[in-house]
Amino acid sequence: MPDPTLFAAAAQGELRTKEQIETQVLRMLNDQKARDAIIHFHNQWLGTKNMNHISPARRAYGPTYYNISAEPALDTSDDFVWPTILLDVRKSMELETNLFVERTIFDGAGTFTALLTDNHGYLSDATAPLYGNGVTELGGGSVSYSDENGISLTLRPVEFPAEQRAGVLTLPSVLALHAHPVHPAPVLRGKFIFNQLGCQPLGSPPPGAEEQAPPDSLDAQTTNRERTEAVTGSGSCAACHDVINPPGFAFENFDSMGGWRTLDNELPIDASGSFRLSGGEEFVFNNAIELAHQLANSTQVRDCYSLHWAQYATGSTLNTSHPSVTDIQAQFQQDDNIQNLLLSIATSDIFRYRRGE
User: Fold this and answer.
1) Strands (E), 282-334
2) Which of 149, 208, 305, 350 has its CA 20 to 30 A from that of 223?
3) DSSP 3-state assignment of 276?
4) What is the pLDDT of residues 238-293, one digit of tens each?
5) Is the CB of residue 130 less than 8 Å from the CB of residue 79?
6) What distance in Å separates the CA atoms of residue 323 and residue 147, rounded to the nearest whole number?
7) Integer distance in angstroms from the first to the last C-alpha of the chain?
8) Cβ(230)–Cβ(157) under 8 Å?
9) What pLDDT, in 10s, does the model give residues 139-164?
């Protein structure tokens, strides 16, 4: 709800001009409510509001990351060990995402480029195993969290190796949401890039497509990429998957929990590829880091992000040819600053007016 200052400005007729609205927006962006709203938007955009849905398999990740047996003991004494670990992991992933978004936009560079490429972040004891070696703890600025469910976490600020992490796309939360319990899902990750970053919906798979997916088991003999290519690279599947798969393959250095890896099934990982968005931009990359930097500079991706924000702010599905939308997008292309993007939306005609009868 508006605060007393905003109600007073409305009552006194001080929300009539762009300049008056700009004054209020700049004031409101300094309020904690603005931080909460921006986190909420990114939870929807990235899908991280669904963190409780991730279900990595104990048999695949329990021994590797948390030093527990692959299977529960026959006497059921440790049946709840893995679910308890995952409670902390899910909550830590959620908090790490929220902190990264908030600190990048309000306390860091504040740009879309930084959102997609910055290699600073947070981790807790629950997620530290996922990040591997080379992480530098920065000291100070830790954030403590506890809740009524018994979860207690301390999030520590860190710097990740620049060759391993770049912005929101390489956060474990985002990666784990687009994965199967045992193996990562390049098809789901590729679809996410097209849908959420390119505003290029790909539709639903044809009936029976899921049955043709590679088995999500530990006894695979080849890499995840090779198995995916084997079932999607020919016949009627190829036409769509030649488009969908490449951006997903860029993230093969990350397992189903978003953990960093250099080998898959003891074989070298190939994370290279190329694809083209509907607007004609082509991306050629060797890994997710290169792709993230290219996406950050993409005209279509920036336009898509600003469109998501405009629709979120107005609660409406907007025509991309509307002059206000194109003006907002043009400003963001030049400026790259996310708070300024919100300012341009709030002072635009699509936010200030609605069509009469």
Assistant:
1) 282-285
2) 208
3) strand
4) 878 999 999 999 999 999 999 999 999 999 999 999 999 999 999 999 999 999 99
5) no
6) 46
7) 27
8) no
9) 889 999 999 989 999 999 999 999 99
